[in-house]
Amino acid sequence: MNNWMKGIAAGILVLGLGACGKTAEPKTDPDTGKKVEVQNKSDMTAQEVYEKVMAVSEEQKSMHAKMDIDQLIKVPSQEFEMNSKINMDMDMVMEPLSMYQKMNMDMGEQGKMDMEIYMTDAGFFMKDPESGDWIKLPNEMYEEMSGQLSGGADPTLDMNMFKEFTDDFKFEQTDDAYILTLSAAGDKFSKLFKKVATENMPAGMEMNEEQAEVMENMEVKSLEYEIFIDKKTFYTNAFNMKMDMTMEVEGEEMHIDQKVKADISKINEIDTIKIPQEILDNAVDINESMGQ
User: Fold this and answer.
1) The predicted structure's pLDDT at residue 174
2) 222-226 contacts at long range (C-beta below 8 A, 24 or more positions apart)
3) pLDDT digits (tens, 9 = 90+) for 192-235
4) Does the structure show a pLDDT above 60 at 162?
5) Would you say the pTM of this structure is higher than 0.70?
6) Which residues are CB-neighbours of 260 under 8 A, at least 6 positions away?
7) Is it true that the peptide bond before 26 is cis, omega within 30 degrees of 0?
8) Which of the listed residues 166, 184, 205, 255 has the most CB atoms within 10 Å of its CB?
């Protein structure tokens, strides 16, 4: 089965299993502080929901994802600051791996950039942001991307490592969804983040010395996850994330504040992704353009 899709569906949910015996409480309204009324109340525990999510993730073959990302990067020593907003729409089919992605990036003073790509077994194509022409990238890039997305480590992690986060975790519900929320901070989460990231590198890939150094000098100041799981299908259909972290890159401290809002839809509704014939006919092969 595809571990990447499995991770989308359930990898984040595993963070809540320190409280695996809990049933979901009615969600607290953030505006009023009161519990919402739930007519369709479920008595399933977090562990039972997790098992259902894992089971249905076996059947997930395609999806559409819409993501909005706000990111602030600061390098204090250089008085550098970049505030960027990214809006992304993506269709993905897992077998054979195919993807269409359109992304708009607004980087403030650094300018704006639009990106559009198609990736199927027919090739990897990217629209040049400046000229608007389509470029055919090397086939090796498709193979590499395919390996990264489909060959990741198994996200069914050792639950024992999450026990210390029981107090940081909420398991709630509305009429339509289970909602899992994790708020964590400090050294214990930095250590966990590094452990999970290291153990779940894509198959055949290892961190190089530079990446390992960045990981070692990374500190997660705070992290909040909010995951929404459909009560009927057990598909993960949305998640929100806030992360505040620092890392050291080439001796310079970098501060990153990131907010992500993601909606996942059309699960198993997309049969194929086809590259328009016009792109196939007119795209410039990057190898040929470079005289290779």
Assistant:
1) 92
2) 222/183, 222/184, 222/185, 223/182, 223/183, 223/184, 223/185, 223/189, 223/193, 224/181, 224/182, 224/183, 224/184, 225/12, 225/15, 225/180, 225/181, 225/182, 226/179, 226/180, 226/181
3) 666 656 655 554 556 667 667 667 777 888 878 788 889 999 98
4) no
5) yes
6) 67, 68, 69, 239, 240, 241, 242
7) no
8) 184
